[in-house]
Amino acid sequence: MSLIKNLSSQLQARLVRYGELQPCTNAFIDARSPGSDKKENFTIIGPGVAENPHQHVHIRELHGFNIGGARQPPGCTNSLHSHDSEEVFIIHQGTWRFFWGEHGDAGEVVLKPGDTISIPIHIFRGFENVGHDVGFMFAVLGGDDPGRVHWAPHVIEKARGFGLILLDDGSLVDTTVGEVVPANATAVEPSSRADLAYIREPRVEEMIANVVRHETLAADAAKVNRSALGQSLSGLVTDSVIDSAIIGPTKIADKLLRAPILKPHGFSLRHLRLKAGAQTTMHVLECAEVLMVHGGRIIWRNNLQENVELAAGDTFTVPTGMARQIEAISDAEIFIVLGGDAPQPMHMMLSREA
Fold first, then answer.
1. What pLDDT digit, counting tens, does each position of 125-176 carry?
2. For residues 69 and 137, is the Cβ–Cβ distance under 8 A?
3. Of 140, 155, 255, 263, which has the fewest CB atoms closer than 10 Å, so is most exposed?
């Protein structure tokens, strides 16, 4: 049973349990195409890039980034597409193969739970669950409006005849449930060669440089000089709490916590590992902060004695400027998305302030 003590309606609305995620099974034009017809898509924070106007958005508040999710059974593929904003995947469950290029043959990399990959803009990318169990991963897109999906031409062609029609305005019409194409609307056609001129195919080395493996996180963070705690972005590093940088920030005071991926994304990504019983200092951040629990159980609390227990797969967004603290019930891991490329260092609360 989850612990929710005196949690205000404001904070309750900022909590999304993994078991309460509402999927959409026809979010994109390829959702009925053979091989891609068993995937579930989620919009957790912000509308994302879903083409179905009826997809449920769990939290609509603007954060400066969008967070979604994908859940797929073994063998299910998400078709090749491109974005106008950076896209970061965080593997929560399963083994996933990412591939790129117009026909998916320019390169590939396999990721496992806890791994992350940042895929640059204007690259056709796809992904497939190559494990033996149902897989789930979080996806973070930069910006409040990450733009529209640009599909590889063969994806549009393959989707024909399966009931989903994508219109020029970016909306999807599902004819299998009785929807009709509005008068004067135009369906999207496969892109011409000229339209694809801006799409590029990176070398394998470039894409691998955008992968951060789970097993490297604690090892890298353990090298942090404890004397630099006052300079760190998080200020949370102890023997029981290890803070690892993954993406950004681009301008930092904590040079010893420098992330392996520094290219601007519009957000920063960190990983927090806590031993059972460990807790952070009560602190304040003046930027958007979203917690995605990767493993274990934690209690999040503020200085108003509001508490909520979070478990693996849960998402929680903290109000900007609110004092907060994390305590680990068991050994736990959390991925944390922070708004902006250079979020301000946190302010540690003194006991009289808390």
1. 999 999 999 999 999 999 999 889 999 999 999 998 899 999 998 889 999 8
2. yes
3. 255
Query: What pLDDT, in 10s, does the model give residues 235-244?
Result: 455 668 888 8
CB of 212 within 8 A of CB of 116?
A: yes
Q: Residues 114-127, buried b or exposed e (16+ Cβ, 10 A)? A: bbbbbbbbebbbbb
pLDDT digits (tens, 9 = 90+) for 249-259: 755 444 445 68
| Cis amide linkage into residue 249, ω under 30° from 0 | yes
Domain 19-211 sits in CATH 1.10.155.10: no
- For CATH 2.60.120.10, the residue range(s) in the chain are 19-211, 213-348
The radius of gyration of the chain's CA atoms, rounded to the nearest angstrom, is 21
**Contact predicate 251/344, CB 8 Å:** no
Counting residues of the chain whose pLDDT is more than 70, the rounded percentage is 86
Instruction: Enter the tokens of residue 9.
Output: 């309606």
Distance CA 258, CA 252 (A): 8
Cα–Cα distance, 71 to 75 (Å, whole number): 12
